[in-house]
Amino acid sequence: AEVIDEAKCLVFKTHSIGNGALMKLAINSLATKSVMCLAVIASCVSSAKADGEIFNKTLKATTWVLAKSDGAISTGTGVLVDAEKKLVITNFHVIGEARTAVIFFPDFKDGKLIVDRDHYTDNVKKISVRGRVLAVDRKRDLALIELDKLPEGVAALPMAEAGITQGEDVQSIGNPGASGALWVFNSGTVRTVYQKQFRTGAGEHDFLVVETQSPVNSGDSGGPVVSDKGELVAIAQATSRKGSLISYNVDISEVKAFINSDWKQAPLPVVSVLDQAELKHKQVQEDLLEVSFTQKDKTEQSVFVAKDVEYFEQADVRRVWSLAASMKEVPSLEIQMKLLEQNSRTKLGSWTIEQNKDGEYLIVYVCKLDATATPRTLKSTMEYVARLTSLGKKDFGSATSATPVASKNTTANVLGSWLGE
Predict the structure, then answer these.
(1) Comparing 241 with 115, which gets the higher pLDDT?
(2) Could you count the other beta carbons within 10 Å of the beta carbon of residue 60?
(3) Is 35 helix (H, G, I), strand (E, B) or coil?
(4) Spatial distance between the Cα atoms of 371 and 269, rounded to a whole number of angstroms
(5) What stretch of H or E contains 308?
(6) How far apart are CA 40 and CA 97, in angstroms?
(7) What is the maximal distance between C-alpha atoms in the chain?
(8) In the predicted model, is pLDDT for residue 218 greater than 70?
(9) Phi/psi at 301 (5° precision)
(10) pLDDT above 80: residue 70
(11) Are 63 and 103 a contacting pair, CB within 8 Å?
């Protein structure tokens, strides 16, 4: 429109003054701008074609990930990074405590990509692939899934040798829940790359972030972020709630370090471990389970185990503890000395004195156990904690300088908010 309007203006001037040179100028101007427009159009067509090629290449490695943990189903995206070993990378927060996952690769009909979610869930037995969670890295928010098999036509996405930098364009594919479709294409620009420490619902994170100017919605997590060369440069992770179009992605260097590390098997959900250990349990708080053990004197001693795994680097531990006494006053020096003496002789864990919000002083025995321990090991540990705490009640109950609290509340209620800390 701009070219035509300007040409009309020039021709009008030529007609008015009869200047043949000006007419020539108008024709040349129109021709020049037409060539420029054609060049721009050709560039756009070439760019669109390149994006389409990258999409098709990335699509072959992209997966839809479904996992079930604590009765709830979470969904996200993953990317095939090793076809020989059948390994898929996704975010830890996508699979949570689940140790198996249902994996879908893109399906086609008459050469056309099927994006309808119902097509995949309705044909889960026919087109899905079973995945087993091999390892997790909460710090990097990554999880590694091993597949039973690979469908025909899929291909692993090559990982970039070096990370991407500011100003470069990136493309991604995800399965956002806000969209009615799967395999949604997205593009953006790298804003910056830096080391970031932050916290999400999945825990505390510390990794090299590729910050992009592109949306990451729920369901996109774990998906591939690729360069203009079609190489994997990051894994989509989260979006900033404080800024518009600010998304965080895990840099490829972190992905490589995770895959190449001497990772160990991911911990099983604590409910599964307790069930395998044949321990009857009940949930007393959102992230807390209680098991009751009968002692020789026929009394019952409650032992608690946290659902959440505490971690540092590759060390995963579970906290197990039991309440021996609750007191209105600070435990006497005699009791404190007894606790110190027993801490030097106990086989597992140690005694601690905590104060809850009601001002009560709690004498608790705490043990931290390797979260990958077998069900039998967890059972033995809990039995030991129950026995030791039951014996401790008699010692602490005989103290006269600190008055035990007389309460009809359950042990869990007496422990109060301390249990969730």
Answers:
(1) 115
(2) 15
(3) helix
(4) 9
(5) none
(6) 51
(7) 119
(8) yes
(9) -120, 120
(10) no
(11) yes
The dihedral region occupied by 410, where left means phi > 0, alpha psi between -120 and 50, and beta the remainder, is: beta
Cβ proximity of 201 and 138 under 8 Å = no
Residue for token pair 């490695």: 61
3-state secondary structure of 356: coil
- Distance (Å, rounded) from C-alpha 221 to C-alpha 100? 18
Q: Report the DSSP pairing between strands 315-327 and 310-312.
A: antiparallel
Q: How far is CA 419 from CA 17, 78, 271, 353, 408, in A?
A: 92, 35, 17, 13, 18
Scan for tokens 């007393």, then name that residue.
284
Q: Which two tokens stand for residue 18?
A: 């009869």
CA–CA gap between residue 195 and residue 199 (Å, rounded): 14
Distance CA 188, CA 195 (A): 20
pLDDT tens digit sequence for 135-158: 999 899 999 999 999 999 999 999
Tokens of 290: 């209680």
Burial class from Cβ neighbours inside 10 Å (0-12, 13-18, 19+) for residue 397 reads exposed
Measure the CA–CA gap between 371 and 316, rounded to whole angstroms.
Answer: 5
- CA-CA-CA-CA torsion for 82, 83, 84, 87, nearest 10 degrees? 50
**8 Å CB contact between 142 and 254:** yes
**219 touches 176 (CB < 8 A):** yes
**Sign of the torsion angle spanned by Cα atoms 74, 80, 82, 85:** positive
**Tokens representing residue 146 in the block:** 């091993």
Nearest one of 346, 348, 351, 279 to 322, comparing CA atoms: 351
Q: What average pLDDT score do residues 229-253 get?
A: 91
